[in-house]
């Protein structure tokens, strides 16, 4: 059963991202929105951890949150979503788990 | 596809705006929202007494308009609402409080409504935090 994990907290202020990374299994997805997109900032341990995820785990981010924070030089595997894409992804995975 | 959407954050949180944009996209995509549910600090969305500066986005009002326009089933956790002063006429009378501030767009009910929504829907999507 595939799960889309949704993070919105900054990965520099708590351990949600690292806890989530430990739980991901093949077929799951990780959607970064809000301040969680800072995990994609170059040269950080968080970015390195995301790049080390197996290819069987989808890496997604909400495009408007990325653009609002001016993040560039993104990983090739990253899928950018608009809101219709967010809805489509929530259907594509069997369930959605938001890290509140 | 049937969606249930639960919101945990107050109207000024970015996650409230994100939830509204998501809900709009759900309906625009031809899907159904079986219920919206407000819990914890999100119950502030159901207050009709919020006054914001004119140059700020009024998230609570946007939600109320969205619900009215689409005639959605929109429920507030009653326990979370009462402790934050969001009362309807009945609760204001019951607890001898002077004011009713609950918006007509939302209905006070119990946490069981969230559980039921989860059973009725294909997906439960939660929004909270920042």
TrEMBL record, chain A:
<protein>
    <submittedName>
        <fullName>Sulfurtransferase complex subunit TusB</fullName>
    </submittedName>
</protein>
<dbReference type="InterPro" id="IPR027396">
    <property type="entry name" value="DsrEFH-like"/>
</dbReference>
<keyword id="KW-0808">Transferase</keyword>
<dbReference type="Pfam" id="PF04077">
    <property type="entry name" value="DsrH"/>
</dbReference>
<dbReference type="GO" id="GO:1990228">
    <property type="term" value="C:sulfurtransferase complex"/>
</dbReference>
<dbReference type="GO" id="GO:0002143">
    <property type="term" value="P:tRNA wobble position uridine thiolation"/>
</dbReference>
<dbReference type="GO" id="GO:0016740">
    <property type="term" value="F:transferase activity"/>
</dbReference>
<dbReference type="InterPro" id="IPR007215">
    <property type="entry name" value="Sulphur_relay_TusB/DsrH"/>
</dbReference>
TrEMBL record, chain B:
<dbReference type="Pfam" id="PF02635">
    <property type="entry name" value="DsrE"/>
</dbReference>
<keyword id="KW-0963">Cytoplasm</keyword>
<dbReference type="GO" id="GO:0097163">
    <property type="term" value="F:sulfur carrier activity"/>
</dbReference>
<dbReference type="InterPro" id="IPR027396">
    <property type="entry name" value="DsrEFH-like"/>
</dbReference>
<comment type="similarity">
    <text>Belongs to the DsrE/TusD family.</text>
</comment>
<protein>
    <submittedName>
        <fullName>Sulfurtransferase complex subunit TusD</fullName>
    </submittedName>
</protein>
<dbReference type="GO" id="GO:1990228">
    <property type="term" value="C:sulfurtransferase complex"/>
</dbReference>
<dbReference type="InterPro" id="IPR003787">
    <property type="entry name" value="Sulphur_relay_DsrE/F-like"/>
</dbReference>
<dbReference type="GO" id="GO:0002143">
    <property type="term" value="P:tRNA wobble position uridine thiolation"/>
</dbReference>
<dbReference type="GO" id="GO:0016783">
    <property type="term" value="F:sulfurtransferase activity"/>
</dbReference>
<keyword id="KW-0808">Transferase</keyword>
<dbReference type="InterPro" id="IPR017463">
    <property type="entry name" value="Sulphur_relay_TusD/DsrE"/>
</dbReference>
